[in-house]
Structure formats: C-alpha cells, structure tokens
Amino acid sequence: MSRTLLTGNGAAAWGARLAQVDYIPAFPITPQTEIIETLAQWIDTERMDSRLVTLESEHSMITAAGGAAATGVRVFSATSSQGLLYAMEMLYTVAGWRTPFVLVNVSRGLAAPITLEADHNDVMAARDCGFLQLHCANCQEVLDNTLIAYRLAEDERVRLPVIVNLDGFYLSFTREPVVIPAAEQAAAFVGPFNPSSIHFRASAPESQAVAVLGGAPYSYFRYELHLAAQNALPVYDEISAEFRTRFGRDYPAVDSYCAGDAELVFVMLGSFATKARAAVDRLREAGWAIGLVQPRLLRPFPEQPLQQLLAGKRGVAVIDQNLSMGKGGVLHTELAAALYGHPDAPPVLASFIGGLGGRDISDEEFFEIARVLQAAVDTGQTPPPRLLYTQDELMEIRKLQAIAHVERKELGGTA
Amino acid sequence: MTQTATTFRRMKDLPSTHLLGTGTPMCAGCGGLEALHQIYDVLGEKTVFVNAAGCMTLLSVYPFTPFRGSWLYTAMASAPAGAQGIRDALDILREKKGLPPEEDLEVVVLTGDGAAYGMGLSATSGAMERDLDFIYICYDNEGYGNTGQQYSGATPHAARTATSKGAHGFAGYKKDLFSIWAAHRPTYVATVIGAEPLDLARKIETARDLEGPRLIIALAPCPTGWDYDPRESVAIGKLAVRTGVWPLKEYRDGRIQHTRVPRERVPVEEYLKKQGRFAHLFEPERDETLLQELQAKVDAYWDSVEVQGG
Amino acid sequence: MYRIRFHGRGGQGMKTASRILGSAFFEAGYEVQDAPRYGAERRGAPIFAYVRAAREPINERGIIQRPDLVIVADDTLVAVPAAGVLAGVSARSVLLINSRDAAEVWRHRLNIDGPIVTLPVNTGVEDRAELPWIGASCAGAAARLVGVLPRQALVHAIETELGGLGDDVVGHNLENALAAWELMAPQYGLASEGGEPRAQEYQRPDWADLAFETARISAPTIYAAANSVEVRTGLWRTLRPVIDYSRCNRCWWVCSTFCPDGAISVDKDGQPRIDYDHCKGCMVCVAQCPPHAIAAVPEHQAQAEEAQPADIPGDPP
Predict the structure, then answer these.
(1) What ipTM score was computed for the predicted complex, to two decimals?
(2) Less crowded by CB within 10 Å, the N or C end of chain B?
(3) Can you give the residue range of the structural domain that contains B126?
C-alpha cells in the first residue's frame, strides 16, 4: 500500500476530503490554519466539491456548522485553543441540537500567557459539552479518525458532534508517512450523509433547539445527551472493527502496548503516547515489566476497557498534558474515578503533569517516572503529583525574570 | 430609486387573518409581537426564523411554537452565523442534492436590540460582508428587556432603566444602528413600527422581494420595560413617529429615503410623558434642560434630513 | 416550620408580599426564607412566591409542596390549573382568598374541608391586574393568620422593605396591611406550623431507568406548526374587550392588525372576532377602535354575564 508524507493538518484535510463533506465553516488560527488553507485550495481547483465560508469568529463558525448540519448537510470544521474556547458556548449548544458533524481541534496551550504550542487544556475544557472526543497519536490516526468520526457522529444510535484532536506542532506541522485510502473505499466506508430527523424544509416545519421551562424537561434532554454519548462506546467498537476489516488498521477504544504482562503502566493520551511507547521499549531492555495504556476515546470515557487493562497492575503513572488549577491532571482524576472500588484496581495511581505549552518530556523523565512509580509500589506510598520541571529550566526562567526586571531579592534560591 | 409595485396600497389591503400562532408568552401589549405578527403575515410560512437570546426566545418553549414554518434558537451573539449555515446548506441541497425549489426557505434572523446593537453586531457585520441572502428583524425595545430592562446600546438618552435609575436616567445615547448597517452597503435597510402597519407591510414586502442582506429595525414599544399601560402601545408607537423620535426610512441602492416625514412634528414631550421611564423629566418638576436637549436632538436630525432633501 | 405560599398575577406584587412577611418573621426572631418564582410568564400571568419561617435554621429549599397557608391575591386564579393554587393543600392548610364571595361559597365551589378565609379588599376594582397595594394587604392578613407576629413586626417589615420608595408608598402600604391585619383578628392564629416529613415511612420515588432514545425523539425539537394555540393565554386577562357590533364600522383592519397577539381575525362578512382563549386583555383594540365600538369589561363580570347568555349585549347580528 503506497504511503505519502503528510502533516497532521494535511491528514485532517484529507479526512474531510475523503468524507466528501459538503460544507466547511472556517476561521484561521495557528496551528490549525493549514487545514482550511488546504481545503480552500482543493475547492478552488475543483478537486473537492464543497463550500468553504470564513466566518468572523469561531463562535460564529460553530453556529454556522450547527445550522448547516441542522439543515441536513455534512459539515467539517477545525479550530484550536483560544478558538475552541471562544466557541465554547456554541459547542454546548450545537451538541444539544444533536447535530452530527466533525470538528478537528489542533491542541494548543491556553492564555494567559498566550502561547502557540501544544497541550491538552483546550480540548479538556470541552470535555463536558456533549461532543465526543477522539485523540490521535500520529498523522495516520488523524486521517483515519476523521473518517471514523463521521460514522460515529451520524449513527442513529448516537447523533452527536465529534472532536478529533491532534497535537499542535508535534502532529499538525510534522510530516509522517500516511496511507491515503482510495476515494471510493473511503466513500464506501463513510457512506452518504443521512439527515435523519433534522432538516429545514418548507413542507415539514420544525422548531429546533427550543427553550424549556423547568428542571424536569431540561433533565430529560440532558440525560438523553449523556445516554447517546454512552451509546457511542459500543457503536465505536463496531465501527472500528469495520474499519479494520476494510483498511487493515486497528483502533480499539483503548490501545495498549506491552501491557499484558506489565506490573507498571504509563497512561497517556495523544502524540506523546508514542514517546511513552519508546520509553517502554528502553525500559523493557533494562528489564522492567512495564507497558503503556493509551485511551483513544476521551468521550465517551472507555471505563470498562481501562478497568480490564489495568486490573492487577501494581502501579500506574498517569501523565497529563493538562492542568486543572487547584486539582491536577484531568485524566488522572477520571481514571481514579473509573478504578475506584474495583477489586483488582492498582494500589498506586500516581500523577505527573508535563508537556504543557509544547514543553518536551524527555526519555530520562519517562525513566524517572518509572523509578518513582516502582518506589511507590515498594513502599505502598503514592507520591504527591509531580509537576515536571528541571533545575535547568528554573535557571532559565530566572534569567528571563532578571531581564524582565523582576525584583532579584524576591526570586527564590537558585537565582 | 425604483418603487416596487406594492400590494399594500391602502389599509384595507392589510391581511385580516394572521399566520403567527396565538398563545405565546410575550407580555400583553407587546409592541415587538405586534410588529412580528404583521411581518409574519407578509413573509409567510416558507421561512426559518433564527433567533438570538432575548424576549422572543420564549416564543418557542417546548412543546409549543407559534410558527407555521421553522425555527432555530442559537445564542445571543451568533444568530446571523446560524442563518449563514442554514442558507449555505439550503443552497448546497439545491445545487447538489436536488432539493426542489418549493422546499426552499427564506432565512430570517430575529433578535432584540441587545443582540442587534451589541453582542451580535460583529456577526451581523460578517453576514453583510459575505452578502448573505437573509432578512434580519430586530425588535428594538431599547433595553435588555428579557432580563428586566437594563440599558443597552439602543437605550435613548435620559431613559430610566433598571441600571440607570439616577436622577437623569441613562447618560448615553442611542446607537445609530441604521447607519451602521447601511454603511455596509447591504441590499436593504429599513426602520418600521407596528403602529404604522401599512408602512411596515410595504417595507417587508420590498425586503421579501429582494435578495442579499435585508435588515429591518422595528421599534417595539414595551409596556413592561417602558412603564406604561399596555393599551397605550399603539398610541405611543404612533407618537414615536409623529414626534420624529423614530424616523421611518429605508436604505437602498446607496440612498436613504424617508417614507414618512412628519411635516408638523408633535413636541417630543408628548411621547415622553406617556412613559414611566421618562417620568423624572416631568416630576417632581419639569427638567427643562433635558427636555430641550431631547427636542433639540430630534430637531437637528430632521434639519439634516431636510438639508439632504430627505 | 411555617410554609406559606402567595399566589397572584405578574404585576400584583406577590414578591413584595412575600418579602414583607419574611421580614416580619425575621423581625420577630425567626429564621426565614422568602423567594419569588419566576418563569417565562409576563404581566397578568399566574406567578407565586413563598415564605418559610422557623425557630431553627431552615434546611428545606425550593417550592413549598405542603403549605400551611395559601394566600390568593386574585380569586380568578383559583380556577386556573396552571396557577397551582391548590397544589399540596390538605385539610389543615388555611386558604385565604381575596374575594367578594363569602368563604362558604368558596368551600362549596372547591369542595374542600380545610379552613377558608376571604379577604374582601379592592372588590370594587375592575381591572384585577391593577389591584392597588394588594401585596401589602396579603402580607398583613397572613401576618395575623399565623398568630405569632406582633403588629410592630409587620410595621417594621413594611418600612424596611419599602422605605426606599418614599414615605407615600410606605404610608399606603401600611394602611392597607394594617387594615387587613385588623380584618383577620377573628382568625388570629388559624394557620399553624406544619410538621416535618418522616423518614420512618414515606412514599418511595418511582425512579425510571431512562433508556437511550433516538435524536428524533430526544432532541428539543417541535415537529408541529403553530401549536402554541393550545396555550390558553386568555387566562392572563383581567379585562375583556367586548365588541359592540352595532357600533363596529367594519373597518376590519384596525383591531385585527394592532392586536399584538393576532387574536382578532375578521370573518368573511367583515366582522372582527376576538379569540378569548388567547386575548391577554391588553386593551390596545379598545384604545384604537375608531368608532369606540370595543368596551373594556372586567373579566369576572364578563364571565358572570356569559353564564346568562340571553343578556349579552351587542351580539353579532
């Protein structure tokens, strides 16, 4: 099968093209812009039969996306970071409309301070809005997940919008070999758009997204949103099995690497999970019984596969590329909730925060995380959450602070 | 300017039965609902109304709707963007998927002044610059009415609102949304009021028969927010026109034309004194300075209109 | 704990009534909760407010389900199911109705066993939406009915709650509240504190196991046209516009076009017809009719006349 070098952004654009999307409301934001530029170029050169409209904000972009999906066409959109948050009101809103479309989010840290590089706080902030979330570890997954996402969103047993998440820079601007499925093969998998119950037509008046009065009707609609999102788990398994049959690539809801006989496990989302995979290889060479567990779905949260994959492990290190201020890592919190009370739950569930705003996580840090985890297992004492940061990095920020005329006497010990 | 032949030549040409369903939770005497039901009679049921947060969000409360056509509630800031998505999708369905023309819909944005003059202005500007084929109806009751009439960008000078209760009322001035919209050079902009139904019907008819961005501001006398007996709604609306406070005009082909020029304008205070929100201009004693200022603003407007040849 | 509910129409001052009573209890050393309940409803639509008062800190919250005392500011609301006036009323709940009809008439009409008291104030007012100072009257009557509040607590409460509106407003409210207080002297202490719910025996909530339903069913979408006509907003009306067809000049557009709700249509003979199921009683048609052919009739009077159909004046020929 022939492979082509594609950036993550290019792979996302290919996903939209192969899904034969009808409509693309857009708004530029780094590091996502290449996606809409690519699509615009394809449309302008008639390689793609679609309509791209640049709105005046992401808030309007998601409104237009929902409006178009509610009228009955297949919609694609993409954003990142501040844009995702600017659209946040509408993410909740259009999910409540039950409009199925796909939004690619290119993860990037949030202001303040403003930055361009990747972490997951943006997409975690959209955790509770009703969009499903698929997280990508490489550029191939970006393309494949986009196709899978349309199937998931449009399935009668779900009917919810889906976010496909890829990390800024690490995937968005990074080329990797990607298999681009043949257009007919992709079309056969995704199928034509089924507007189902939603459409605005003169012959069939519909009032969509109307207000409710009182907590009881409100609760019904919100509970059903949740039940639809939960339904997406078995539906995802079905769709990914079909994808494997058609394309030969396997995407279980939770991926794992060397986890079967492992006593210690890393848990990570997104592109940095491949770094954890490399660290597992090195640690295995050093004699460690260690593995990786990597959720692909964050919503719905695949509790049961996680419980099964982590059952009987002695220690788990969750490495979060996000930070809930005053609490800690979001994935750590969610995993703790999923494991609590299970008889085979690992006794040690340690939390590490790293990779914020594009900050790398080095091989040595993975090795050290393994060492800390083993020590915790040996002592039975779970360590406090560790914010990954080195003395060298602290020295560097001290230099910057000095240039910024931060009062020298107020700076801590290492200045 | 070419004048479209109108089916509304006399009052007797106005519809005698009405399309918009009764039973809505709008206040008794609502000037916005009065304008809307007249507008709906002209636009008809082959429409999808795209609504932003405001009083009229409550027109459709599950499981009831007064619309014979369709409706989508969006959010306060982005109803024109919702209209964009629907219009584009209908075009795509027409072009690619064989949607028959009789299934097509006119896309109509419906917002209050809070969204139109403030939070949604950027989305409206964007829709106009993209030459979106839509109609925008703003019911302007000059304040955030649905939350209890706090001042908005549409509140007139000196009006008392829930957030301008001081001795002199609202210190700011009503934003000139008509001019802001017209500066985008859309297809059509007009002001209307439910109390002048013939003028309203002709303008909605004009808008209906054109394409591109067509935007309408309906002054909406509000018994609840303006503090007057609901029975006065139409009387106050007529006074808004006869005093010159609410100029009835339209923008088309780069020109502004006044459709009703009150030759002998009634003093502005006749309009003000009917409304509790201006009571402090008359009691406990007349605020001559403010009354003169308000009259002078209206006079200056009409002086400039006459200079331009209206 | 005392659990007290005030029912009225938007604009009749039920929030003020609940605050006056709440303040009076507070003044008398009670722990208090008072709150209005807002919905989408507007002026003239049924609304309610409530007060809890107890000697101990109050942990209960939300709408009062089992009231000790229900005050109805506008007797036309009793028959309106949506107003929920009788919700949770038991044999020990006191019902206080502002009405010209006697308590016995109401007992017969409602067929309930509990104590009913009427408060005949403002009975001469035609438009019940304009009942002046009715909030104060209701608060004053309620304060006396509970029997544990000194007169001075009521006076202080009114001064506290309404002081910002000027001496004139305070004076009128005091006058009306104290008049109602005096009227209720014979029923002093009629309303008593209700007990607490029992955990030893209770009716188990019948929880449903919600199942997934397709988006067609479970999205907040209405697949209907103009079904709002099923909502009878005519219940908001306190004044009724009545057309004298002998004076109607069949201009046939004025009332029909100006009616904000579109509740007036014109039949094929050019006669305007008012849809009383939906007319909210704004009286715009009365104000605008060129030959003054539409009269504003108090709703209770119009209903009484309807009961004797032979007497309806100006019936269309």
Answers:
(1) 0.95
(2) N
(3) 11-308
